[in-house]
Design a protein that fits this description.
about 130 residues; alpha+beta; Outer Surface Protein A, domain 3; 8-stranded antiparallel sheet; 8 strands; globular
């Protein structure tokens, strides 16, 4: 192999390792949520619409779902039952993280493209981009 092929192979392996690390984190999180919800007395495990961890009032605090389009999504809910953070893997197996404000608007989005490039978007209250990379 020449140096260019070595660098390309190295970049691909590095991208796959980042993707694999993210997937391991999602699976570990889902496992912890499942085990926690299964082991808590008095709590209900709802698998019809996905897995749900509920607080003492019956409000969902975390949900793990597989949507009809193939997307896998872990949603963390605040005490007002508003989505606060979402970790997802889209139908093309690309991971992303969205942070949501108190009004339910995505304010931070971090993800990977199909090329393995990281993307970051910061949005204001109106949904307008204040920062985007690349």
């Amino acid at each position: 192999m020449n140096r260019l092929e070595d660098e390309t192979l190295f970049e691909r392996v590095e991208r796959l390792e980042r993707h694999n690390y993210f997937l391991k984190w999602v699976v570990l999180s889902a496992t912890v949520i499942f085990l926690f919800s299964y082991g808590c007395k008095g709590k209900r495990l709802d698998v019809r619409q996905g897995l749900s961890v509920q607080d003492a009032n019956g409000n969902a605090r975390a949900t793990l779902q597989v949507l009809d389009d193939g997307m896998v999504r872990l949603v963390l809910w605040d005490e007002r039952t508003m989505a606060a953070a979402m970790v997802s893997i889209n139908k093309d197996s690309m991971p992303f993280l969205n942070l949501v404000d108190e009004e339910g608007r995505v304010r931070v989005s971090l993800g990977l493209t199909e090329d393995g490039e990281a993307t970051l978007s910061l949005l204001d209250r109106n949904g307008d981009s204040t920062f985007s990379a690349p």
